[in-house]
Amino acid sequence: MPNDDPSAPDSRRLLPLTPAGLHILLALADGERHGYGIMREVEERTGGELRLGPGTLYGSLKRMLGEGLIAEAGERADPQLGDERRRYYGITALGRATAAAEARRLDALVRLARSKRLIGPEPA
Amino acid sequence: MSARPPERDAAERVYALLLRAYPAAFRERFGAEMRQLFRDRRRDAAERGEGAARFWLGLAADAVRSLPAQHLADLRERRHAAPALTPVHRFQDRAMIFRKLAGAVLVLIALFHIGIDVAHPHSSMGGLAILLTALMLAAGAVLLVYPRRAA
Q1: In sequence order, what are the residues at sequence separation of 6 or more whose Cβ sits closer than 8 angstroms to the Cβ of residue B18?
Q2: At a CB cut-off of 8 Å and minimum separation 6, what does B139 contact?
């Protein structure tokens, strides 16, 4: 796993996340992935609604690397995709904390929308 | 970055040309991975039976969304690194960005025409349309590739 900065600044300063940013963090939450792996995971989890193109994906990764949300995790081949080496990315402690803060923020918004009867009650 | 980079075919060469529209620093860091993702997505599209026109349209939409954002980010980074840029340097920066975006637009329009032609073979392009498309592709390539100064 990538090195995490123990003196990570408050994750709330990076909120709100872009939809692509949050989906990338969610894709990396359960393990390191390369760019194509991230793209596939996001596409599958959103039922094809969000398909990250190369420019959007690597633009987001560049920004998130700069913000310390993710870190490079080395290069290696993916056995399922042949012997071509791929660069992997992993989530940092700050990235995990920021994704959690964003999920809580969205949860509060959903609760507010329920209280105003904009959406139905939570399914049992 | 890859141990065995596959041979580039014509489509990947066109995509590599389009990549030249991104800022040099971004391209140097992520260009190889973006080409890798291009090959992966192309393989997926072929497996799904997705047409070439739809595939290239998706890439064009991605370029339209991401190119201005990357150039703005690059400008901010360079201004942060060298805040005392002269007006001449600022003008050169903007001219370079304009040239790259214009080149990308010409290549994308040419690709769009080729995509339409592939998708509708019965209404194949006439001689003049082919000439115009080739000219747009060539002009776009010239704007993207020359001069080779990093930007």
Answers
A1: B59, B63, B104, B107, B108, B144
A2: B103, B106
Span between the terminal Cα atoms of chain A, in Å: 37
Which residue range forms the structural domain that includes residue B52?
Answer: 10-145
- Partner-chain contact A36 B40, CB within 8 Å: yes
Kindly report the average pLDDT of chain A as a whole number: 91
* A45 CB-near residues (< 8 Å, 6+ apart): A23, A26, A27
Region of A117 (left: φ > 0; alpha: ψ -120 to 50; beta: rest) is: left
B1 found inside a domain? no
Which is more confidently placed, B86 or B34? B34
Residue B5 lies in a domain: no
Interatomic CA distance for residues A6 and A93, integer angstroms: 8
Query: A55 contacts in B (CB within 8 Å)?
Result: 22, 34, 62-63, 65-67, 70
Query: Looking at the predicted structure, is the pLDDT value of residue A7 above 50?
Result: no
Q: How far is B8 from chain A (nearest CA, A)?
A: 14
The minimal CB distance from B67 to the residues A36, A51, A55 is found for A55
For residue B57, what pLDDT band results from cuts at 50, 70 and 90? Answer: confident
CA distance, residue B4 to nearest chain A CA (Å):
6
Q: Is there a domain that residue B122 lies in? A: yes
CB contact under 8 A, B36 and A84: yes
Number of domains in chain B: 1
Is pTM, for the whole model, over 0.90?
no
Question: ipTM for the complex?
Answer: 0.85
Q: Is A5 on the interface with B (CB under 8 A)?
A: no
Closest CA to B2 of A35, A3, A22: A35
Let me know if residue B84 belongs to a domain. yes
Bridge partners of A89, per DSSP, are: A33, A72
